[in-house]
Each structure stands twice: as structure tokens, then as C-alpha cells.
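FW: tagging you since you asked about this chain on Friday. Here's the raw sequence from the shared folder, copied in full. Didn't touch anything.
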Amino acid sequence: MSIDVLVTGSAGFIGGALVERLRARGEQVAGADLRSGPLVDLCLDVTDAAAVREVFEAHRPRVVVHAAALVDDRGDPALFETVNVGGTRRMLEAARSAGCQRFVQVSSIAALGITPGKNADVHSPLIDDTGSPYFDTKARSERIARSFMEGDAMEVVVVRPGDVYGPGSIPWVERPLELMRKRQPVLLGGGRGLIAHCYIENLLDGIELAMTHDDAPGGIFIIHDGSSSTTCKDYFTQLARAAGMSAPSVSMPKSVAYAVAGLAAVVHRLGGPPPPFTKSAVDYLTRQSTYSIEEARRTLGYQPRVTLAAGMAALAAVLQDHAPSASWRAGRM
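HL: got it, structure written out here
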């Protein structure tokens, strides 16, 4: 049976949100993921070439949105390479062979490295030697997607989300709130690092434009809320208030955070729990980089609809109505 849109990673935060939106609009969409879930129609391991080909041969989607990825700053680099890089290549090859019209690769601003500087954009280089398996494999997977733009058999679009938050976001909502509940610091270096926050609904607007706009093919589009001045302290303070908690006040100096991350990594290698954060995360949370959305504005007509204040109000309505263990889209990446 043919379908209109195939979304990978539909058990995850971004993929699941996209499937929900498309279903609500009556689109013929199928969600695919290795994990089960209410928004997963097809069990699919993107690292299994035969399984990927079988899905495309059976369903012949017109549009593919590839959102499946390992999203963490910790883990086995080989597994990140297999899933994020190898999985992307297999999806692109199968989509092209099946005659798909358009392939939207959900990349990340992480593909530009940890500290790409001011106004990073489509012309900024991809950085794949940061030492973070997530950052490095997002750069390599985007490079593969861009290589498929060179032919004319299939339209390829790259979307680079900023720091995506919303109900169910693990890195930007659930994990920091858990640290706050444990009275562990979430502010590093005074919380002066900048965050390119992106409310999930703004990202979905950008992805839909990438799926449908006539001028999107061959484009690389950064999508976030449009702010270049929000600090981590600003963001985490508003997040705490959205959850009905006191604003974080304790900050860990960057040098101390480095030492803690290094010690935690050693303990983990010896069989202990995963570290609460890594040295890469310390650098990321203290960066002064900004990211331009002008290409998305100019080419796609993208305009962020949801401000940080409005996004936090929507998040508060969910967080304060549910226990932490039952939060919306809990467990998705």
C-alpha cells in the first residue's frame, strides 16, 4: 500500500510530534521506528538495509522525513556511527531507488560543531572532530544527505533544528528538571552560555515548509525561535517556573564542571552510572555561538510563531497537570 509521507523516529520527540500533526490534518502518514509506540505504524531498524528496502518497496512514500537518530552526548561512538550515519545513508539510497519525490533530513545545529561562532549559517563548515559522538555523526550524516543533492532523481532538503524544547523533550526539559529536583546544578559558568531555543511547534512549521515548498529542494535551513540573546540562565529559570519550581540559583564554574565530567566518565568506564554531563556538554552550555535563520525566512517564508514566553506557558500547562513520570511524550528523544 502506498503512503504519502513516511516519518522515521516516530517513537521520538520530533518524529512523533510531526506524525501527530500530519495525522490531525488528515495526511496519509506512516510513522516508523525500532521501538513501539502509539505513533509507530511500521517497525523499522534503519541500520538494516534489507528491512529499509522492504519498507520502501511495500509503501512507496512520496515524501520521507528522516528524524531517527541517537540523541545524547554520551554513548558508544560506534553505535552512533551505525545509526546516525549508516542509517541515513541506507534511508537515502532506498528512497532514491523507490522513486521518492522528496527526502527531508532532520539534521541539527550540532552538525556545525560545539562553538561555531556568531551567525552560523548555511555557509558554515560541518565539523566532525569535536570528540562528541552525537555532534560528529550529525555532521557526517548531513554531509551524506548533501551529497544526494547533486543528482536530480530525488529532491533533498536539510533542516537543522536548534535546541528543541516542548513537552517530552529529554535534553531540554526532562533531564534539566530532573537535575533541579535532585538539587544538582544546571547552570554552568554562571549560566551565561547562549541557547538557540526552538519550540517544537515552530520546528514542525519549518519541517512542513521543507516538505512542501517549491524552493526548498537543495536547501539547508536552520530553524529556531529567532532569538540570539537568550542565556541558559534565562531559559532554565523560565523552565523551572513552568514546572512550578524555584529558579536555579547555584552555578558550577566551568573548570569544576570539566573536572566533574572527567571523573564521572572514569567512574562510568569502571561500571558506574552514566555521567550526568560530558565535557562536550559543558562546552555547549557555555558557548557564545548564534545561528542565523535568515535562509529559512528568505527562501521558505519561515516565521517563528511561538515566542519563548508562549512556549513556556504551553509547557507549564502540561507539566503542572501531570506527574513527572507521566509527562507528555515521556521517553522520546
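FW: The chain is about 40% helix and 10% strand.
HL: agreed, and Confidence is low (pLDDT under 50) at residues 323-333.
FW: great, closing this out.
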